[in-house]
Design a protein that fits this description.
Layout lengths: L15 H17 L1 H16 L3 E4 L14 E5 L8 E5 L11 H4 L10 H8 L28 E4 L8 E5 L12
Antiparallel strand pairs: 1-5, 2-3, 4-5
Helix pairs in contact: 1-2
Protein name: Peptidase aspartic putative domain-containing protein
Organism: Araneus ventricosus
Length: 178
């Protein structure tokens, strides 16, 4: 991830407490909606099974450098591809008022303007389109930077919270091209 040069001087503060509170609030919502609960658990299970995140068993959150990122679900019942998307909040602030997005250099615009795209598309007799499945989740994060991409999760509300580190890029990061 392209961090701003001043990251070495920044004291990050705590993000665990806020993230665990948001996880508990999420569980209140999931308990009211069994469908969302099932889809949410399946989404994170798939993340883990595809090796896009890993459990961190030795994590001392009180003196651990890094950021815990809260997440929430967005239901789209009319969607064909995904009924639920888990959105990771990279703008959530730590106790020292920094977020992951504050620490990253902004990604640039890499897509041409639509007029140029359509003009070029119409130039030829045949055109092909393609879609890369879970495109950004194919980009692996450097292991030394995964401490900035920690999630909290538990399969059931009564379980202990587990810590996970994302191993791939998420949609909510500022560095992604638009």
């Amino acid at each position: 991830m392209p961090f701003k040069p001043e990251i070495e001087k920044i004291i990050l503060g705590d993000s665990y407490q806020m993230t665990s509170k948001r996880l508990n609030n999420l569980w209140k919502r999931l308990n009211r909606d069994p469908t969302m609960k099932f889809l949410y658990s399946e989404f994170l299970r798939e993340y883990k099974n595809r090796n896009h995140m890993e459990e961190i068993t030795k994590c001392n959150h009180s003196n651990d450098v890094g950021i815990f990122l809260p997440h929430q679900g967005v239901l789209s019942p009319s969607s064909i591809t995904a009924k639920l998307r888990v959105v990771i909040d990279a703008s959530a602030k730590t106790t020292t008022v920094y977020s992951l997005n504050d620490l990253l250099c902004a990604g640039g615009v890499v897509q041409e303007d639509l007029f140029s795209i359509f003009t070029r598309f119409r130039k030829h007799q045949y055109a092909f389109t393609a879609d890369i499945s879970k495109m950004f989740r194919q980009i692996e994060i450097n292991p030394s930077q995964r401490k900035y991409l920690k999630l909290l999760w538990k399969e059931r509300p009564e379980e202990n919270i587990k810590v996970f580190a994302l191993k791939t890029v998420t949609y909510s990061q500022l560095v992604l091209p638009s």
